[in-house]
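User: Good morning. I'm curious how nicotinamide-adenine-dinucleotide would be positioned relative to this chain. Could you predict the structure with it bound?
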Amino acid sequence: MNLKSGVRNVKQSETPSALTILFGATGDLAKRKLYPSLYRLYRKGHLSSGFAVIGTARREWDNDIFREHVKKSVMESTAVQEQIDEFISHFYYLPHDVSDSDSYVALRTLANDLDNKYALGGNRLFYLAMAPEFFGTIADHLKEDGLTDTEGFGRLVIEKPFGHDLPSAQELNEQIRRSFDEKDIYRIDHYLGKEMVQNIEAIRFANALFEPLWNNRYISNIQITSSETLGVEERGGYYETSGALKDMVQNHMLQMVSLLAMEPPISLQDDDIRREKVRAFRSMRPLTLETVNDYFVRGQYGPGEDGMLGYREELNVNPESNTETYVAGKVMFDNFRWAGVPFYIRTGKRMPLKSTKIVVQFKDIPMNLYYRPDDQEMEPNLLVIHIQPEEGITLHLNAKRAGHQLQTTPVKLSYANSGVDVMNTPEAYEKLIHDAMRGDSTNFTHWDEVALSWSFVDVIAEAWRNEKAAFPNYPAGTKGPKASDELLEKDGFFWWPMNMLDVNICN
Ligand code: NAD
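Assistant: Good morning! Here's the predicted structure, ligand included:
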């Protein structure tokens, strides 16, 4: 029997012709991510001949300097350089001051010229790859100076962070909503562009095997880890105002939680998925100042082996800093599906391993008929979703130990994405730019999600602001503070060690 296809609901449209106006064109993000992504889209035929990019920033560059810059950034990212000169011929540059109206008038004139030259139909993507304090000013000018006044679409793509708490996010949102409708605002959370994060929905909703078990009858807990080996590097100034809670938990971690916890949507249409994610956010158990420390713990790295600096010794960091470089927490959902199932999250810098993984731990079988060698306990079934650096899925099962009638041994069924042609696996930004051009906002964060996640996180931030932590509490290069292990131990669980979950290792 063929299943009825839901594809009718999904935007599979061609990429329309469009002009991308990139603010912050000389910056780090544009160089490392955006130009290589645009090139890959171009090479794959996703940008028609009808595309043009205007780069703007403070520097007094001209088209030639800009095109060389774009070319260099592409060449640093890929060995394939076919059609690169044709590609960069679509790039134009204007020096720009974000608060000066004359800059926008010049921009409008150039945009209108390129509209005609490339027959772009007035479609515009305004990509703000700049510090968020400029977002409101730019959005105001885009409207006031007539850049959004065209026949085609006008979409605003903005980078994180979206505010630093709920009130600042609300203020920013009100600013940009003066010029853009919610449906035209594409807030980037680049985790949502990752292949394996997008795979969460496919694993859940395209397999008869998992969704029937995806609830508190069969799942004992879910663990999401995102660890980095690096410290703050040269970003100490920014990190001091953010910390792991705002830098990682409010956005990436809670987004992954919501994809795992949401109810099945009625289609893969952006509105339908968003509705379910918002419902999931709304059923998260809210914390109070009194309960925060029962659910969340924080850490900060001190000096480690091989001369690794402690956080407080890093550049632009207060020597008495109270900023957390590690967070672990327990998120509970008060709804029928998830009542009683903890979703544990942890994220930190200067960990032993760079890894983002989701571990779904199933409940123990009701009765064990088998032995394990040396009286070891039978292991629970695990579904591991490897987000990065490896991409894949592993299912941990128990099978009979060869030659031993009554003994079992753990086995892994693994699928590693590394077998796929790497050049053709789209990078997160590539997918997100492509989606924004096609008008598919599924993998962007809607204001309701941003607001709900800030209200959850703000209570934690406030509790921690009021209380000085005993930092540092884990040496650089180790797996975080003891309190993180204790958080699970008191529920009878433990963090699954990252190294035993490798996608490629078979027992
Ligand atoms: P950056 O400092 O490297 O670049 C900033 C850009 O803004 C430069 O092109 C600069 O010329 C321009 N600019 C600054 N002030 C200006 C002004 N008054 N008028 C005109 N142009 C001005 O920053 P970045 O690392 O590229 O980050 C940009 C945004 O992306 C930020 O919101 C950041 O949080 C976000 N982000 C960056 C990364 C990354 O990997 N770099 C990752 C995620 C999010």
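Residues 419-423 have pLDDT under 50 and may be disordered. The longest strand covers residues 219-227.
Let me know if you'd like a different ligand tried.
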